[in-house]
Amino acid sequence: MILVIGAGGTIGSALLEQLRALQHPVRAACHSQHSAATAAARGADVAMIDLADPVTLGPALDGVDSVFLLSATGPEQTKQELNVLAAAKAAATVEQIVKLSVWRADELLTPIARLHRPVEEALEASGVAWTFLRPNFYMQNFARQLAESIKHEGVIAQPETHAAISFIDARDVARVAAHVLTSDGHTERAYNLTGPEALTYDEAAKAFSTVLGKPVRCVGHSDQQAKADMLRRGLSEGHADTLLEVSRAYRDGGADTVLPTVRELTGRNPGSLEQFISDHAAAFR
Questions:
Q1: For the chain, does the N or the C end have fewer beta carbons within 10 angstroms?
Q2: DSSP string covering the chain, please?
Q3: pTM as predicted
Q4: Residue 96 pLDDT greater than 90, yes or no
């Protein structure tokens, strides 16, 4: 039995689909009734949890062999994931934890890395078999953060940068997770995951233009302008500051590596940005 924590999110829901296709027993750990109903409709066993309340974790872990650990980015993330580790160690059956981490987490370059790394270190010392997945920037961020400006203005507005990024489709991350959770040979491995090529935001804008059949351009903003734009879109000040620090960390490079890991683990090439745009075209038109 695999427990998927974060089952209501983009990667978690895709992972549920992958495990169902493999006919593997899976339990979805959900925070809301909506995500619970969605997971149940997909054929998963469902457990309601609150990562801030360790009492809710024991029942969810009952009879579970492997855990996929994903939680929302935020100030409580580290503490909440450590709650899961403590509950998993207390459970009689848990043998493996596959943790979704972040690109270059071990180098502590960004605020997001600094949330993930303490959990990685605790897992390394836990005695529980562990695997880390460290994906680069998600293609889904275009849909989550930039869809409205692409749709209405034909603009990808980002903090000024000219460095390339090997964007990855979250669906490929879910495929890797499904493989790691259902096959042997991944203990004490950290897998860095990328898409098939590294693109600048200008090059990404050209891909949007080609696929959508309308002009899309990249506009580089100063950090001050970029933060104001994020706040206008409804992000909290803390979230905006975090994204700006990530942008500064990779402004001159460091996220442009392209790796064969997805293909090596899943037997499939990772999806291109053009394919992602085509699959999600309704969000951008």
A1: C
A2: -EEEETTTSHHHHHHHHHHHHTT--EEEEESSHHHHHHHHHTT-EEEE--TT-GGGHHHHHTT-SEEEE----STTHHHHHHHHHHHHHHSSS--EEEEE--TTGGGT-SHHHHHHHHHHHHHHTTSSEEEEEEE--BTHHHHHHSHHHHHHH-EEEEES----B--B-HHHHHHHHHHHHHSSS-TTEEEEE--SS-B-HHHHHHHHHHHHTS--EEEEE-HHHHHHHHHHTT--HHHHHHHHHHHHHTTTSSS----SHHHHHHSSPPPPHHHHHHHTHHHH-
A3: 0.94
A4: yes
Q: Which residue has the tokens 């490929």?
A: 172
- Token pair of 54 as six digits: 């360790």
Q: Is the dihedral of CA 220, 276, 102, 8 positive or negative?
A: positive
pLDDT confidence of residue 236:
86
188: left (phi over 0), alpha (psi -120 to 50) or beta: left
Residue 233: pLDDT band (50, 70, 90) is: confident
In whole angstroms, how far apart are CA 241 and each of 195, 224, 231, 236? 26, 10, 10, 9
Rounded CA separation 100/84 (Å): 13
* CA separation for the pair 268, 265 (Å, rounded): 8
**Cα distance between residue 219 and residue 182, in whole Å:** 43
